[in-house]
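Deliverable D4.2, example record:
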Amino acid sequence: MTTTSTPPAAPAPAAPAPARSATVGQTARRAVPWIVLGVIALLIAGLGLLLTGGGSSSGVALDAGNAGPVGGKAVAQVLRGQGVDVRTATTLEEAQAAAPDATVLVYDPAGNLPADGYRALADTAPALVVIEPDFRTLQEVAPGVRAAGAPEGASSAGCDLPAAQRAGRIDPRPTSTTEGSSLPGTFDVDGDAVACFTDGGGGASLVRTTYQGADLTLVGSAALLMNDGVDRQGNAALALGVLGEHRTLVWYLPGLVDRPVTGPADIAALTPGWVTPVLLLGVVVFLAAAVWRGRRFGPLVVENLPVVVRADETREGRARLYQRSSARLRAVDALRIGAIGRLARTAGLPRTATVDEVVLAVAALTGRDRPTVRRILIDDLPATDRDLLALSDALSALERDTAAAVSPTSGRPLPPTGRMDS
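Output generated by the structure prediction step:
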């Protein structure tokens, strides 16, 4: 008889596995914190640029070697072309050394030069030109001249000074690129001082007077001499006329060396301007990262994990932790607590029995003296790992002896337990 075997059925096609790749929405949600941090960083950087002036005032303001918008290189070059010996100075000693028979230009927006510095210059130089003097400087060099606010616009000479007459009309206002680099102003004049270029508000952009025998010219706006403003109307003529009266011009920008020492240096004066914005940015980024990574989504939830941990693994793991930290007392306490509980149950004592009662019962069952049992269960303190192992062996032996004593095959009578047997 011929039998035919049925071919095995073809296996059913496996169901497609679910996709594990992150979707576009998930990727976008994960990128949101980084985008927020980037926006915050850009805002802080922009704020830092605004606070430090950004790149609008490139170089040192009114420096004779600065070709940027706020520099004074154009005026210095033209003066040199007319035969004027232009010498730069950054300290009072340098300015005094070059000052005899010279005009000294002083531009000190930071207030580094003290009052006695102006007196020293006036004793040496025949002419001083002070650009944008502050209140303290005006009190020293020209008590009859007061600050009168920013210039309102272009103004005519209005005085008999030859340099002002040749200039005719000036515009002392800063340009869009030099705005914020200086604090232009005008003056109110009392007394014999000569006021020139008075605007509609009554403020003069230039004042000529004397200071300790030297000719003193006060210029209210540094924009008249800056590269980006000297070419407007008669600004260049005025600058060349005021600064070119003598064959030598000392271009003096006081620095920190000229500042009087009254105490320890201020850390703000010793650090670059970008340090503060960078520190603020770092603090903001740190706080944002702390809030982002340290946030909680709600109360903790207890979840039963589908894992069964064997008791011996737990015991061994805890023993290794005790061994690694040399916590012998904690280890022996754990051993003794478990041993005392088991000994109490073996001896038939209630759960409320004290350790002393367990010691008495175990000593009576095993025939050992009570001090020995008490040392094993309470008093002995292991000083080394060897002592701990010996104590562990003693506890195990004590439990074995107790179990053997209460075993029905031992033939030893049980001691009274304090319980009433029915």
